[in-house]
Amino acid sequence: MADRLVELRTTTKQSRSRRDELTLSLDAEPTAPEKATLTAIANRITEIITTGSHNKRKALVEALVAMVIVTAPNRLRPVFRIPTPPTTTGPHPPYQRKQPRRERFA
To answer: How far is CA 75 from CA 66, 68, 72, 105, 106, in A?
Structure first.
């Protein structure tokens, strides 16, 4: 029983710490990648679209499209996912390892 209480206290401290990190990250404005990075990404996307195999093109679409909204019988609206790098560096505590990547939707 005492071991369980110690474990719960540790989990509570980690959760509070994570909550505080997330609260601070809400205040931080996202930054745009450098122009060279955007150019490299655009070139890679163009390369995959023009010379990539069917599977590579499919993987590209799956990586960039978060969802598709059907607006009419013959009309679709894709919602794109823009992965952003994490704002913190260094090793992550065990409770953070399974967290999904931060993403912004456009």
So the answer is: 17, 10, 5, 20, 18
